[in-house]
């Protein structure tokens, strides 16, 4: 590389985001600069490197670059040093702050740097305001309260100048001081005008918002505290250099009663401890994490990523808390040994003891209240018991009949009460075998319906079947056999026996049972088929059941519900909708909230009109018991999204996440993904990012990589919309790595192309070209030639705008080859014209016509940049007509405007005038293409010796002559 090339690289590095990528590129450049003889480049690279190390999470390396630059500055002054003097003097502040964070650095070295800083500031005529501030910071670090207060006053009463910290950072330190001495109202009052202004420093506004967390909380400003946490953490979460500040947010979550969120933050950043920017940051994060871990149940585990020789593992929170507490305490003792005080150990002891204090402050954008996890029973949460009447003088058969009737009507509370009375009164009585068999049959109804009760229910039915056979009572035996068979079909090992039992039961009861028994037997047979995925057979059985179920409204309602489920699985939309409407009408008459909720949900899923679905969900919510509200909230939220009512959908989906967490159910990560998309659609991007981050963590934890990657893709788009392009690019890079397999090539190419597009829009054209090239290669391997051509065209344009004309010229051949590859494909279209660049074929797909035309336009622009104007004109010939043939009118106009420019540059102003007048007449007034066309037309008129006409065009379009 030439020196000019290296300077261009340095310029690109300076525009890169802070982090490992920038540091790696910088260190490579430093090696090249030191191998050459450009002292200016070596100095400038280290100036940029000092800032890169500080904000990239490796401040220890900044000591070396700063010392090197200061030594060069003093030893052999050069004219170019003057332009870096301000930055060099500014770096003294970085050095003092960073040196306090490394306990191995003696304090006298920090004081020596402070003294040197003061001497240079005095000699150069600068204010000592920044010096006093940093002497205050040293005193505060030592816990020297009186000395810190003195320096604080001198700092505030000394005039500011160009070396003072910015209008956000100085108040941040002042707020920190006021909060530390308990003057929280003053801290808030000081910060408010600062936050109302424009803060564009690298550290702001996240630093001052983080410092305000405690003052806001202590002064009862709950909403401000919540907003400050969300805004600041969102800006901090991707920056290793801000690990200490992230610790403040972990502690804030802990003390406000948001244990789950604190745990998420700890797990998200735990591996940063292995590469902490400073020992001080590691100490504070370890302490805050310890306090957070101590608030959650000890049986929980945190996933810890692999590092060095340590494999990835799930670590119990108790063991991890003990480990991190030891880390924090040991580091505090090292600082105190260096400082000669106990101040750091006292600070860390307070952080370790942090616990919820005061009223709960909900912080999560996904969990709306402090969830109290419920133990999983495998079934829905029980509804509140309603009064049940059990006659005091009822005999054993009367009690069993009452229990049976309650069971039929879904009144488990009544069933249990009647059976309890039976057991208390008659368990030891000498009763007929039929009565005892009946009691055994009802035993299955007492059990919960969760997976853990299936085995018990199977055994209860086997015992009842044996008892009825012994009576003997063939009809009751077949009823129980059908129930047993349906239960067995829920298990793989019992499916064959279950189907046989259920079929035989249905056949026997069809021949010998009454109407209700026949219908119920067919319903049980349908359930057996459903459990085995035999949907057509299940529908046949349900149709037979429905024909006779009207004898019992409860049975008719259940059959109708089962029928809607089967029709939905068979994707018979019209029949599903009719069946759901019928089921809804039938169960309304029963007065059972759970059945009605199920019917309304089925109806909501069956209708095409989202508003109608929302209405059905509203009816379900009005009647649903607590345990079945989760699916209603999910369905309602999805219907609201489909109705473009995303703001309302957010409330339902957030409630669904909360219910899922409260009930201890799996799937909350998937629900958070949906909630994040709803926040995005509602324009609430900050909350969308927060919830999508939670979803990615949860999906990764659940091992659902495909879903996690799709959520990452959503999150990348949210970051891009927020203007956080570096975070978006990092996610897309991770996605591309995750999709690095032969089956994922098209998706990998799409992700790479999206990354290129973000970089291109950010004017980081050289890196964008690399992403487009990688995307094109992946498209080629995946067999997507049209997409490959598009990516190659975008690569060419990125190289063109990056100023790397030789690389752009070389890429022309690559683009031509990609276009030629389409000619050889029967589905690619396009014959070859006389110049070999492809002419549109009548049967060519529009997308092919478009991409071939735009590729030719891109090539022409590169040729024009090389002053190969005739070749460029040749490339654009005929393109506007091709584009208009596929209704790409805007692109056609852009090509014609460019053609007009080429005609002017080839000294054909008359041809340019004719073309540009025609184009200008078809463009919207005030648009950018119209302005370009008018400017070129005026130029053409000037070249034709018609200045008055040119002036008129300029006046009409508001274009200055120059």
Helical proportion, percent range: over 70%
Structural class determined from secondary elements? mainly alpha
Task: Specify the CATH architecture of the largest domain.
Answer: Alpha Horseshoe
Global morphology: globular
Write down the CATH topology of the largest domain. Serine Threonine Protein Phosphatase 5, Tetratricopeptide repeat
CATH class membership of the largest domain: Mainly Alpha
Unreliable spans:
372-385, 828-838
Task: Kindly state the number of beta strands.
Answer: 2
At the fourth CATH level, what is the homologous superfamily of the largest domain?
Answer: Tetratricopeptide repeat domain
Count of alpha and pi helical runs: 47
Strand order of the largest sheet: 1-2
What value does the Rg take, in angstroms? 37 Å
Mean pLDDT: 92
Domains (count): 3
- In percent, how much strand structure appears in the residues? under 5%
């Amino acid at each position: 590389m030439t020196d000019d090339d290296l300077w261009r690289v340095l310029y690109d590095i300076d525009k890169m985001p802070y982090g490992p990528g920038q540091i790696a590129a910088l260190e490579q450049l430093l090696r090249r600069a030191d191998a050459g003889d450009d002292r200016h480049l070596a100095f400038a690279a280290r100036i940029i490197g000092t800032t890169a190390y500080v904000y990239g999470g490796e401040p220890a390396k900044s000591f070396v670059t700063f010392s090197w630059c200061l030594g060069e500055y003093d030893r052999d002054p050069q004219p170019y040093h003057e332009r870096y003097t301000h930055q060099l003097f500014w770096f003294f502040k970085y050095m003092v702050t960073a040196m306090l964070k490394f306990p191995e650095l003696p304090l006298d070295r920090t004081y020596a740097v402070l003294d040197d800083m003061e001497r240079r500031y005095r000699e150069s005529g600068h204010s000592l305001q920044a010096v006093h501030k940093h002497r205050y910071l040293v005193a505060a670090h030592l816990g020297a309260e009186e000395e810190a207060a003195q320096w604080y006053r001198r700092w505030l009463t000394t005039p500011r100048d160009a070396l003072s910290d910015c209008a956000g950072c100085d108040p941040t330190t002042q707020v920190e001081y006021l909060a530390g001495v308990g003057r929280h109202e003053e801290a808030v009052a000081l910060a408010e005008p600062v936050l109302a202004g424009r803060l564009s420093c690298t550290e702001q506004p996240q630093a001052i918002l983080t410092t305000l967390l405690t003052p806001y909380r202590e002064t009862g400003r709950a909403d401000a505290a919540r907003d400050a946490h969300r805004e600041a953490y969102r800006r901090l979460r991707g920056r290793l250099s801000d690990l200490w500040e992230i610790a403040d947010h972990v502690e804030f979550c802990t003390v406000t009663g948001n244990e789950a969120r604190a745990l998420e933050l700890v797990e998200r950043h735990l591996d940063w401890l292995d590469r902490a920017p400073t020992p001080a940051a590691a100490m504070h994060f370890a302490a805050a994490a310890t306090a957070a871990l101590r608030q959650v149940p000890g049986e929980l585990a945190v996933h810890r990523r692999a590092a060095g020789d340590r494999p990835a593992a799930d670590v119990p929170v108790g063991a991890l808390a003990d480990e991190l507490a030891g880390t924090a305490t040991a580091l505090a003792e090292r600082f105190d040994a260096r400082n000669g005080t106990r101040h750091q150990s006292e600070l860390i002891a307070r952080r370790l003891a942090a616990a919820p204090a005061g009223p709960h402050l909900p912080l999560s954008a996904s969990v709306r209240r402090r969830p109290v996890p419920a133990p999983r029973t495998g079934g829905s949460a029980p509804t509140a018991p309603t009064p049940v009447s059990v006659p005091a003088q009822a005999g054993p058969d009367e009690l069993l009949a009452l229990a049976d009737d309650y069971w039929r009507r879904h009144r488990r509370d009544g069933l249990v009460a009647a059976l309890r009375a039976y057991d208390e009164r008659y368990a030891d009585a000498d009763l007929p075998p039929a009565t005892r068999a009946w009691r055994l049959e009802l035993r299955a109804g007492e059990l919960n319906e969760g997976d853990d009760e299936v085995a018990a229910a199977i055994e209860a039915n086997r015992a009842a079947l044996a008892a009825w056979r012994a009576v003997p009572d063939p009809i009751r035996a077949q009823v129980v056999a059908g129930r047993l068979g349906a239960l067995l079909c829920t298990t793989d090992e019992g499916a064959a026996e279950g189907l046989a039992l259920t079929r035989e039961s249905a056949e026997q009861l069809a021949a010998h049972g009454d109407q209700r028994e026949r219908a119920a037997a067919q319903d049980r047979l349908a359930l057996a088929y459903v459990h085995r995925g035999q949907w057509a057979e299940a529908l046949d059985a349900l149709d037979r059941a429905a024909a006779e179920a009207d004898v019992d409204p409860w049975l008719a309602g259940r059959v109708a519900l089962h029928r809607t489920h089967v029709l939905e699985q068979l994707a018979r939309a019209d029949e599903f909708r009719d069946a759901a409407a019928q089921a809804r009408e039938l169960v309304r008459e029963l007065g059972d909230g759970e059945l009605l909720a199920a019917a309304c949900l089925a109806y909501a899923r069956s209708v095409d009109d989202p508003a109608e679905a929302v209405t059905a969900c509203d009816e379900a919510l009005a009647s649903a018991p607590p345990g079945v509200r989760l699916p209603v909230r999910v369905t309602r939220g999805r219907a609201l999204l489909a109705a473009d009512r995303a703001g309302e959908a957010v409330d339902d989906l957030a409630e669904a996440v909360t219910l899922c967490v409260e009930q201890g159910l799996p799937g909350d990560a998937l629900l958070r993904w949906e909630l994040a998309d709803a926040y995005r659609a509602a324009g609430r991007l900050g909350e969308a990012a927060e919830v999508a981050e939670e979803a990615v963590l949860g999906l990764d934890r659940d091992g659902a990589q495909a879903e996690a990657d799709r959520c990452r893709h959503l999150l990348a788009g949210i970051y891009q919309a927020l203007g956080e392009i570096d975070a978006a690019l990092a996610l897309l890079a991770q996605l591309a790595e995750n999709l690095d397999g032969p089956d994922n090539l098209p998706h990998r190419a799409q992700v790479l192309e999206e990354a290129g597009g973000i970089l291109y829009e950010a004017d980081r054209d050289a890196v964008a070209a690399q992403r487009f090239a990688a995307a094109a290669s992946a498209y080629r391997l995946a067999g997507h030639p049209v997409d490959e051509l598009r990516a190659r065209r975008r690569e060419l344009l990125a190289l063109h705008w990056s100023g790397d004309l030789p690389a752009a010229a070389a890429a022309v051949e690559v683009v031509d080859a990609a276009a030629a590859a389409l000619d050889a494909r029967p589905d690619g279209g396009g014959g070859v014209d006389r110049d070999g660049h492809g002419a549109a074929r009548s049967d060519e797909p529009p997308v092919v016509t478009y991409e071939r035309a735009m590729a030719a336009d891109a090539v022409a622009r590169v040729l024009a940049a090389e002053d190969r104007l005739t070749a460029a004109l040749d490339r654009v010939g005929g393109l506007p007509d091709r584009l208009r043939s596929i209704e790409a009118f805007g692109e056609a106009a852009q090509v014609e405007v460019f053609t007009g420019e080429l005609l002017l540059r080839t000294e054909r102003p008359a041809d340019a005038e004719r073309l540009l007048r025609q184009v200008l007449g078809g463009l919207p007034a005030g648009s950018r293409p119209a302005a370009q066309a008018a400017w070129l037309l005026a130029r053409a008129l000037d070249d034709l010796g018609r200045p008055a006409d040119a002036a008129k065009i300029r006046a009409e379009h508001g274009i200055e002559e120059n």
